[in-house]
Amino acid sequence: MAANFVKTGKKIIGIGRNYHAHIAEMKSATSVEPWFFLKPTTSYLQNGGTVEIPNGVDMHHEVELGVVIGRGGKNISSEMAMSHVAGYALGIDMTARNYQAQVKAKSLPWTSPKGFDTFCPISSFVPKEKIENPHDLTLWIEINGVTKQRGTTADMIFSIPRLIEHCSSIMTLEEGDLILTGTPSGVSSIVHGDKIVAGLETKAGEELARWEGDAADRQGGYSFSS
Amino acid sequence: MASFARHGKKIVAIGRNYAEHVKELSNAMPPEPFFFTKPTTSYVASGGVVLIPPGIDAHHEVELGLVIGKGGRDIPQANAQAHIAGYALAVDMTARNLQNQVKKKGLPWSAAKGFDTFTPIGPFIEKTSSIDPQNLALVLSINGETKQSGLTSDMIFRIPRLIEHISSIMTLEEGDLVLTGTPSGVGPVKPGDKVECTLAIPSGPVLSKLFFSVAKREGGFYTFTPEK
Question: Where are the alpha helices (DSSP H) in chain B?
Answer without folding.
Answer: 4-7, 19-24, 96-105, 110-114, 159-167
